[in-house]
Specification:
By secondary structure, the chain is an all-alpha fold. It is built from 11 helices and no strands. Helix 2 packs across helix 6, helix 7 packs across helix 11 and helix 9 runs antiparallel to helix 11. The N and C termini lie far apart (about 40 Å). It holds the Pfam family Cytochrom_C. Keywords: Electron transport, Heme, Iron, Metal-binding, Periplasm, Signal, Transport. It comes from Sedimenticola selenatireducens. Its main location: periplasm.
């Protein structure tokens, strides 16, 4: 095997390894007692403004916890919750929530057509990129790149996050990728994409 193939094999192994949970799901279940009031015992939150964590990539969950703790992402509820967590705690919580099954959602029928168009093709007239370029055709994201699963997520949560990225209230996206995309999205496009994703499976 030549050096190029060896290098590619190592990189692929690292990417696959990086997508796996480094924590202990059973330990995470115990530690999740403080999370269940908002996110539900199995990571399926009852409040549509709080995200479902069930089935989310462990790498993404850990990234968000680290950034809540470090201040790159701010939230009055989550920042103080993340502050006392060790990296092992984060790994364990990420392993637990990622191992849970997400409950499916349903999209508003009158929003699906526009939402699907923006998600899959963007809007060439206003230079809005297609969401699936990063999050995939089924909304499952990319764990190696820490792009989250967004299929089945609460529409209200997605809509709020997109508007927060657009306003700059949320700014923990790598290289301003999300902020640059949503900067040109209208409220109607954001609402439609959020509804489409809520029903995407």
């Amino acid at each position: 095997m030549n050096k190029w193939l060896v290098s590619v094999s190592i990189l692929l192994a690292m990417a696959v390894g990086g997508a796996q949970a480094a924590g202990d799901a059973e330990a995470g279940k115990t530690k999740s007692a403080t999370c269940l009031a908002c996110h539900g015992a199995d990571g399926n939150s009852a409040n549509a403004l709080w995200p479902k964590l069930a089935g989310q990539h462990p790498s993404y969950i850990k990234k968000q916890l680290l950034e809540f703790k470090g201040g790159a992402r701010k939230n009055d509820l989550m920042s103080p919750m993340a502050t006392p967590l060790s990296e092992q705690d984060m790994d364990d919580l990420a392993a637990y929530f990622s191992s849970q099954t997400q409950t499916p959602g349903t999209a508003a029928a009158d929003q699906v057509e526009l939402g699907a168009t923006i998600y899959r093709a963007g809007n060439a007239a206003t230079d809005v990129a297609a969401c699936m370029a990063c999050h995939g055709p089924s909304g499952m994201g990319n764990p190696g790149a820490k792009f989250p699963r967004i299929s089945g997520q609460h529409a209200a949560y997605i809509e709020k996050m997109l508007k927060d990225f657009r306003s700059g209230d949320r700014a923990n996206d790598n290289a301003k990728m999300m902020r640059n995309v949503v900067a040109r999205m209208t409220d109607n496009e954001i609402a439609a994409v959020a509804q489409y994703l809520q029903g995407l499976r």
